[in-house]
Amino acid sequence: MKTKALAIEIPVSEDLKLREVSINDAPAIFSLIDTNREFLRKWLPFVDYSKAVSDTEAFIKSVTAEANTTDLVFAVLYQGQHVGVIGFKSIDLANLKLEIGYWLAENKQHNGIITRSCATLLRYAFEKMQMNRVQIKVGVSNKRSSSIPKKLHFTFEGMERDGELLANGQFHDLEVYSLLRREWERKADTAVL
One GO molecular-function annotation for this sequence (predicted)? Predict the structure, then answer.
């Protein structure tokens, strides 16, 4: 997966694109984390571990390493600016399944950026990667995040109890949503794009 010479770039719309992260994105991504720290830390455990650009560089090096076959991470670029991160994690090629994870700067919420980006990544996962199953996990009570798989016709499967350890030292439950290729093919015409 990491042997290609060029980074993957996926257009979403005229003003929105996804570009595979590179080390050059580290300062912009760290700046987003740092300026949105309080907003992001409620749901994302990595925020408190991102204390310097070097922490973001280490993350990017880990997900772009040639040996990594389980992650494919993109910078979300809206109107030419970094506004968040989205990507595939837990890629399981043997079972043709993966998970989509995402986060977005607080001041860019409510523009459909992540919903449109997820719809585009679904197409990429099912058509280019030939996946059979895509899942999204969101923290219970994270209404903004859980609205995305609902809009994209995912099925709510249940709760992953104590699924994630947050920065405050407390575990919280995760809602698990999934979409199968055959469902996506049937519902693609009605998906929010």
Answer: acyltransferase activity
pTM listed for this prediction: 0.91
Residue 113, token pair as written in the block: 């950026």
Which residues span the domain enclosing 139? 9-190
Q: How far apart are CA 164 and CA 35, in angstroms?
A: 23
Paired sense of beta strands 133-139 and 97-104, if any: parallel
Residue 17's DSSP bridge partners are 11, 77
Residues 106 and 44: their CA atoms lie apart, in Å, by 13
Question: Which of 2, 7, 17 is CA-nearest to residue 113?
Answer: 17
Mind listing the pLDDT tens digit for each residue in 1-34? 444 557 899 999 999 999 999 999 999 999 999 9
CATH number at residue 19: 3.40.630.30
